[in-house]
Amino acid sequence: MCTACSSGAARRPWGVSRVTTPTAAKEPAAKAAAKLPPANPVPEPLPYLLDFYPLQDPAYTQIAPFFDALKEGRFITSYCKHCDRLHFPPRIACDQCTADELEWREMSKKGKIYAFTAMMVGAPMGMEQDLPFAIAVVEVEGTRFKILARVDDARYEDLKIGMPLELKVHKLADGRVFYRYRPMAMS
Amino acid sequence: MMSGLKGKVAVVAAGHSRWGIRNATWRELAQEAGRELFKAVPDLDRKDIDSLFVGAAEPERFAFQSHVAPLVADMLGLKPWRVVQRTELACSSGQSAVRSAAMAVATGMSEIALCIGVEKMNLPNMAEAQTSMACVLDREFDGPAGASAPPFFALTAQRHMHEYGTTEEQMALVSEKNHENSTSNPYAQFQKPVPRDKVMSSRMVAPPLKLFDCSGITDGAAAVLVTSAERAKEFTDQAAYILGSGQSAIGGNLANLASWTTWEPAKIASHEAYKMAGIEASDLDFVEAHDCFSISEIIEYEDLGFCKKGEGGKFIEEGNPYIGGKIPFNPRGGLLGMGHPFGATGISQIAEVLWQFQSKVPKKRQVAGAELAMTHNLSGAANVHSVLVWGRAPTVGG
């Protein structure tokens, strides 16, 4: 276990801490990672400038409501009523009319696969333990957006273009969240 | 009609380091390219180089170094006094350096400018290098999906296959061709042939892309000397003259791309460059295009105007982009054969154009009698495309 985590959290002004749980690594992923060339020890938590997940606290961003909603399982984005236009990623000013009085609108959590692949090798730091993992371009139902997201609970071989997916909230150990997708539950 | 840069600016000399996994730092690579350039113009007094443009995509990430231009000046014994800057446009940082220098020369801000592109990408911890490459895309919103270059171009390839019936075998032909071309390039990272079967059986990186569908992770540098068309003869009997240029950007986050399979910015940038030059795509004698992945070159055949949309795979199957074919693509060896040090690629392509015009390249990759050439780069999620059209003479047909 990483002994730096508890003290590291206090030192870092962005309040990011991450608890490593080596037992959480699934057996196949661990095997894939073992094939990689030896890397230097990766500090946990990752330094801010090596970490892909955005800062989500209102101290650092004006789109904190997007992340707060995601924590509650809602997928929202900014909307300009003057232009009748949704934005993604969420913005603080409309890219068409520059209005900054934007509203938050809920988007569907359903989507379907437009394209998909898998990262087999060469993952960035902090993602190596997940190799291989599926990635898809997802058409978000009811919007013009095709967004990139990881697909959990499925292997590359399980996916097809046009396949329905549903949004899944991925929670980081430090409390931050990010959207992923998973195959639509059969009902 | 805007005449822009047409006929005003010339590249008169070039220098190149060996590319590959190098036992060298970024500044040593820059010195190698600079030294080779100075050897090519022994009469040049370094004091006359008034401007310096350094193409470098991510020295902060790969070398933990900002403000690289003055360090390059220091290493090369330059004291530029007109324009000194680094240009950053990810994989197009090198071409950006030359476009910026060309604009400075065309306006009279600079008379003699050195452009040098450099990137040191092989690090002791390659996961850190992968992290650095991935932050070229929208790090906060596409990054958490693991979106580095191979997955992005894999998604593009799958979609192109889905819509147009492009095949993995056709993509393998691109890799085979460009690796064959780089066998005669002593600067290349890869100098051995990679036959199509070897491409097809290489390790899967991001399906459908395999190892040899991907350009390498490369350390390297290249340099060119830029001056006005009037002064070109002071340095060489045969310069490469800029006839046209264009650049276009659409979309940042992947949700806002114009399209996944049609690179609208490539169409816009090349159209602009052809218009400025007063030519059509079919007038070109060879193209140095940005084949960061095999699928990229196939889409470029289409969107730079050499074949109909969706027929890029067929275009190579029919033998068109080979040396001796209808329009040779990447005689230098492309990014697939040469490797791809982000900041240096665009400048290496321009060095190839100059050396082709000067008949200085080995016969095997010489495009006989070439009068007109194009260099093309894309950057990021293919959301930016940059184009330069080059002539053996400052006027078309001149």
**Rounded to an integer, what's the Rg of chain B over CA atoms?**
19 Å
CATH superfamily of chain B: Thiolase/Chalcone synthase
Secondary-structure element pattern of chain A, one letter each: HHHEEEEEEEE
Strand content of chain A: 25-35%
Radius of gyration of chain A: 18 Å
Overall, the morphology of chain A is globular
Report the β-strand fraction of chain B as a percent range.
15-25%
Q: Could you say which structural class the secondary elements and strand pairing of chain B correspond to?
A: alpha/beta
The quaternary state of the protein chains shown equals: heterodimer
Give unreliable regions of chain B as ranges. Answer: none
CATH topology of chain B: Peroxisomal Thiolase, Chain A, domain 1
User: How much helix, percentage-wise, in residues of chain A?
Assistant: 10-25%
Number of continuous helical runs of chain A: 3
Architecture of chain B, according to CATH?
3-Layer(aba) Sandwich
Largest sheet features of chain A: 5 strands, antiparallel
Report the helical percentage of chain B.
25-40%
List segments of chain A where confidence is low: pLDDT < 50 over at least 5 consecutive residues: 1-40
Task: Describe the overall structure.
The complex is a heterodimer of chains A (187) and B (398). Chain A has 187 residues and is of the alpha+beta class. Chain A has 2 domains: 4-51 and 109-183, no CATH class; 64-107. Chain A contains 3 helices and 8 strands; from the N terminus they run H-H-H-E-E-E-E-E-E-E-E. Chain A has helices at 4-11, 27-34, 64-71, and strands at 75-80, 85-86, 103-107, 110-119, 133-140, 146-151, 164-171, 177-183. Chain A has a 5-stranded antiparallel β-sheet. A 3-stranded antiparallel β-sheet of chain A has the order 2-1-3. The relative contact order of chain A is 0.16. Residues 1-40 of chain A have low confidence and may be disordered. By secondary structure, chain B is of the alpha/beta class. Chain B has one domain: Peroxisomal Thiolase, Chain A, domain 1 (3-Layer(aba) Sandwich), CATH 3.40.47.10. Helices cover 35% and strands 17% of the residues of chain B. Chain B has 13 helices and 11 strands. Chain B has helices spanning 26-40, 59-62, 68-76, 93-106, 126-134, 149-164, 168-182, 196-200, 264-277, 294-303, 312-317, 334-338, 342-357, and strands at residues 9-16, 51-55, 83-87, 112-119, 204-206, 209-210, 220-228, 240-249, 286-288, 372-379, 384-391. A 9-stranded mixed β-sheet of chain B has the order 3-2-4-7-1-8-11-10-9, with helices on both faces. Chain B is globular, with a radius of gyration of 19 Å. Chain B starts with 8 loop residues before the first strand and ends in a 7-residue tail after the last strand. The mean pLDDT of chain B is 97. Chain A binds chain B through residues 36-37, 39-40, 42, 50, 52-54, 88-89, 114-128, 130, 133, 135, 137, 145-150, 156, 161, 178, 180, and chain B through 124-128, 130-131, 134-135, 138-148, 150-151, 154-156, 158-159, 162, 203-209, 253-257, 260.
